[in-house]
Amino acid sequence: MTLTRLPGPLAGSDDQLTNYQIEGPAHRLLMHPFPRRVRAEFAGEIVLDTRAGVLVHETGLLPQLYVPEADLRDDLLKSTDLHTHCPFKGDASYRSIHVGDRVAENAVWNYPDPIATASWLTGYAALYWGRVDRWLDEDDEAVGHLPDPFHRIDVRATSQRVRVLAGETVVAESSQALLLSETGLPNRYYLPATDIRAELLTPTDTRTVCPYKGWASYETLDAGAGELTDAVWSYQEPLAEASRIGGYRSFLHEGLTTEVDGQPL
């Protein structure tokens, strides 16, 4: 994400302040080794087990894990009639995973004869993240997608006064917030529960996953002028890298204004 999405150097945009230029096509590919063992499980079987995986970074896309063909359970794979074309990599062929009575259709793809500028994909295959049951990064279960080694999260305590307003109503105010900076994303302020008007919040069933923070739960906010659905989220049991925001809440909705030291964001 950090390499091929803004403000990364391979994002395909020249609208950045640099003292260099990267010559090459607007759509760029970069492959490099992933440093840990990765496994994928489907219907109780390990269908992928690699210590030689690589990440392919592609302009505007999340990095994709490719693995040597030998690291896939070939006995569980069956070729299909699906073929697709990528102008930057070539013609892709697909295989489905079959374990007992379960099938993951067209879950694996490769480029048997990639174009010359992506010839290094020869002998590698990729597996759709969401078409298997579980991924393991070493022995830890990976959530969302495999983490990008170039992606970073920093959490810092801040004494700046953070206020969240719905119209004229103050719904949260704190000088004990945490500021979370995440690669490629705007800063987010997380506020402690004690500084939030909990009576205005109603939990919803919405859940999202972040491979760097974990599973987020959402709440609807009603300050008297109508409900703002899923305007508040929190990580009750965040991943270790984001452990400091556990139980804190963040706010984002077009019906809300967040002020920091009196200045609206």
Overall mean pLDDT stands at 94
- Classify the secondary structure makeup into a structural class: mainly beta
* Share of helical residues: under 10%
| End-to-end C-alpha gap | 24 Å
Strand order of the largest sheet: 1-4-5-9-8-7-6
Q: How much strand content do the residues show?
A: over 45%
Q: How would you explain this protein's 3D organization?
A:
The protein has strands spanning 29-33, 38-42, 45-50, 54-58, 64-68, 77-86, 90-99, 102-110, 124-127, 134-137, 140-141, 153-157, 162-166, 169-174, 178-182, 188-190, 201-210, 214-222, 227-234, 249-251, 257-260, 263-264. The chain is mainly beta and 265 residues long. The strands form five sheets. A seven-stranded antiparallel beta sheet has the order 1-4-5-9-8-7-6, with no helix packed on it. A four-stranded antiparallel beta sheet has the order 3-2-10-11, with no helix packed on it. A four-stranded antiparallel beta sheet has the order 14-13-21-22, with no helix packed on it. Strand 10 and strand 11 (140-141) form a beta hairpin. The radius of gyration is 22 Å and the shape is globular.
Q: Quick gist of this model?
A:
This protein is mostly beta strands and 265 residues long.
Relevant terms:
globular, 22 strands, 7-stranded antiparallel sheet, mainly beta, single chain
Describe the protein's topology.
Layout: E1 29-33, E2 38-42, E3 45-50, E4 54-58, E5 64-68, E6 77-86, E7 90-99, E8 102-110, E9 124-127, E10 134-137, E11 140-141, E12 153-157, E13 162-166, E14 169-174, E15 178-182, E16 188-190, E17 201-210, E18 214-222, E19 227-234, E20 249-251, E21 257-260, E22 263-264
Antiparallel strand pairs: 1-4, 2-3, 2-10, 4-5, 5-9, 6-7, 7-8, 8-9, 10-11, 12-15, 13-14, 13-21, 15-16, 17-18, 18-19, 19-20, 21-22
